[in-house]
Amino acid sequence: MSRKTERYPVEEANSLWQIYKTVPFWKVVRNFIVIQIARYTPWISVKNWLYRTFLGMKVGDETAVALMVMMDIMFPERITIGRNSIIGYNTTILAHEYLIKEYRLGDVVIGDEVMIGANTTILPGVTIGDGAVVSAGTLVYRDVPAGAFVGGNPMKVIREKMDD
């Protein structure tokens, strides 16, 4: 199954060279500052408040985002994290990708009670179902079924349904 992204072709130079035609400069500056503060904030409730208030993210109650997690700087409002989930240390969640001839945007939806291991990268347009577990160091490049245990680079389904 392919990721759910919107594709925007570009003329002239590569799409990253044209970044401020796709997203306002001051939005990126503000988002960068808020994300850097949140990355180092030791209080989970403050971190979630920063994400909700200044970035427009949807973050569920009792969700814990670990130290050094890198949210998408350009389009963080396209990230949704459900209730009682854990996002592991140094994970990167992207809602955009800039390529040579186009850029793509896609919502990232992480369900309730999801566990994301450290150093994981989640690409745009991906949905991770409720109760899923993503092992550390995984490249999440497609949807993860609810309750599944996945891992690796590239990601593979290790088990379809986790046992309680």
TrEMBL record:
Transmembrane segments: none annotated. GO terms for molecular function: acyltransferase activity. Gene3D superfamilies: Hexapeptide repeat proteins. SUPFAM superfamilies: Trimeric LpxA-like enzymes (SSF51161). Keywords: Acyltransferase, Transferase. The keyword Transit peptide does not apply. It holds the Pfam family Hexapep. InterPro entries: Hexapep (IPR001451), Trans_hexapeptide_repeat (IPR050179), Trimer_LpxA-like_sf (IPR011004). PANTHER family: ACETYLTRANSFERASE (PTHR43300), ACETYLTRANSFERASE YVOF-RELATED (PTHR43300:SF6). This is Acyltransferase. It comes from Halalkalibacter alkaliphilus.
